[in-house]
Amino acid sequence: MSQSATRASSHGRRPPILERNLVKGRTNEVSLPAFAFLFCEMLSYATKKSSGIQDMEKKLSDFGYRVGIRFLELIVFRDRIGRRDTRLLNVLSFIHSTVWKTLFGKPADALEKGTDNEDEYMISDNEPNVTKFIAVPKDMSQLSCGAFIGGIVEAVLDGSGFPAKVSAHATASDQFPLRTTILMKFDKSVLLREKSFEPR
């Protein structure tokens, strides 16, 4: 620990962020208003640099992917040193609970397996933070701001060795008008590996 960090802790103040212990640090230090402001700026940038809704969603997903890769490195270092999941349900549970809770302050609301295809799983959030403070214009009603979260999920899956195509879909209901579902369609290699774990 540096001298400035020692001085800060002896006076009851927190040490500078770059001198804090990564392993014991709190993970939910960003306030919701700060996050909302930053996300609005990202959305504004994506709007100016995009040629249409699909292009905007791709840019939001790319932003999320960059966040997800760095987040995975941090959370593995903090909480999962020496541990690597090899089963699909374990990594999905990790995303549904640990990742969501660390990023958004609560676990996701649902984790479901697709009924039509065995390679599809879904994670749903009834009130995702990325849509709480966003007013999408009527001419862009098809835009899913959840593409940012989809990018985070895709990065965590890729970084964990579970490649998948991830997309975000608005699945609003009367009770939950902001509900977003993240659809994960896994690569064939993931399903073959899962089958290899099954008892013969």
TrEMBL record:
It is found in: Endoplasmic reticulum; Golgi apparatus, cis-Golgi network. InterPro entries: NO_sig/Golgi_transp_ligand-bd, TRAPP-I_su5, TRAPP_component. CDD domains: TRAPPC5_Trs31. The keyword Endoplasmic reticulum applies. Keywords: Endoplasmic reticulum, ER-Golgi transport, Golgi apparatus, Transport. GO terms for cellular component: endoplasmic reticulum; TRAPPI protein complex; TRAPPII protein complex; TRAPPIII protein complex. Pfam families: TRAPP. GO terms for biological process: endoplasmic reticulum to Golgi vesicle-mediated transport. Part of the multisubunit TRAPP (transport protein particle) complex. Belongs to the TRAPP small subunits family. BET3 subfamily. PANTHER family: 41-2 PROTEIN ANTIGEN-RELATED, TRAFFICKING PROTEIN PARTICLE COMPLEX SUBUNIT 5. This is Trafficking protein particle complex subunit. It comes from Powellomyces hirtus.
